[in-house]
Write a structure and sequence with these properties.
single chain; alpha/beta; Rossmann fold; 2 domains; five-stranded parallel sheet; 9 strands; 44% helix; binds phosphoric acid mono(formamide)ester; binds norvaline
Length: 305
């Protein structure tokens, strides 16, 4: 494992190893045990989109690992003025030990990895959000005691989070059902990759337009915003189309009685999920947000250690 660009590049064992290391680092952090696995190392964090969780958890994580992090807004570095990915990758490789990047095109993240000589971590693109899903898997494991054999239902837009969930579930033996409105389905490339992984492990990948079918008997129910970053101009049109996909008490009741609710956040209460569900007893959204820290520390320690 040289980079974290897509969960599809990791095999099941690599994902399990990252989850085990996340758990260990989390336990040590709670016990106040220092683990300066990246002492003297520097992470550059390039952001072309907003962030609360990703930025703070990477920055704090690097500090807890004994290293240092640099926040590089694409508005402030020359990349935002048209400097090439090739030059950026080569220059940054001479200064720092790893790059976390949040941007639009997945191909830019892959090019950064291709042209540079240091590990690259995908902190979200329009197509993928692998760090989020590692934190989600850790959260599900903590609450359910296992991953294999569980059913996760994702209800909503078939983009970055859904794509990485496809990979993450398929590779850990979880069944995944995704319900999206027509025209907002997952990219078939990632569905095929997940089906391929699921085949060898014996799990199921189901895509539907019917939220009731997807959520039926689910152990884990997952929502993301209907309006992703960069799509703000589609808001009016999407709200009407997505309303039947709102996770409310009526829909949530079709999941298993002990189902947990996850949301990568930021959440918009009253749109993709109602307040009673996201703030209810079965919601684990803040454990999930916390686990970004622990999961990403494991990723950084593995790639940059
Ligand atoms: N879930 C997530 O990536 O949150 P941020 O956009 O706040 O980083
Ligand atoms: N789908 C959302 C995820 C935010 C973490 C977006 O791309 O904005």
């Amino acid at each position: 494992m040289k980079h974290l660009l897509s969960l599809n590049n990791l095999n099941s064992n690599e994902i399990q190893d990252l989850l085990k290391l996340s758990e260990k680092l989390k336990r040590q952090t709670k016990e106040g045990v220092q683990h300066h696995l990246l002492k003297g190392k520097t992470l550059g964090m390039i952001f072309s989109k907003s962030s609360t969780r990703t930025r703070v958890s990477f920055e704090v994580g690097m500090y807890q690992l004994g290293g240092y992090s640099l926040f590089l807004s694409s508005n402030d570095i020359q990349l935002g003025r048209g400097e090439s990915i090739f030059d950026t990758a080569n220059v940054l490789s001479r200064y720092i030990d790893g790059i976390m990047i949040r941007t639009f095109n997945q191909s830019d993240v892959e090019d950064l990895a291709k042209y540079g000589t240091i590990p690259v971590i995908n902190g979200l693109t329009d197509e993928m959000h692998p760090c989020q899903i590692l934190a989600d898997l850790l959260t599900i494991y903590e609450h359910k005691g296992k991953l294999e054999g569980l059913k996760l239902a994702y209800i909503g837009d078939g983009n970055n989070v859904a794509h990485s969930l496809l990979h993450g579930c398929a590779k850990t033996g979880m069944d995944i059902s995704i319900a999206s409105p027509k025209g907002y389905e997952c990219d078939s490339r990632y569905v095929d990759e997940a089906k391929e992984a699921a085949k060898s492990i014996g799990s199921k990948v189901v895509l539907t337009q019917d939220p009731v079918e997807a959520i039926s008997k689910a152990d884990v129910v997952y929502a993301d915003t209907w309006i992703s970053m960069g799509q703000e101009d589609q808001k009016e049109e999407k709200l009407n189309i997505f309303m039947p996909y709102q996770i409310n008490s009526q829909l949530f009741a079709k999941a298993k009685e002990d189902a947990i609710f996850l949301h990568c956040l930021p959440a918009y209460r009253g749109y993709e999920v109602t307040e009673d569900i996201i703030d209810g007893a079965q919601s684990v959204i803040f454990d999930e947000a916390e686990n970004r820290l622990h999961a990403q520390k494991a990723v950084m320690a593995t790639l940059m250690g």
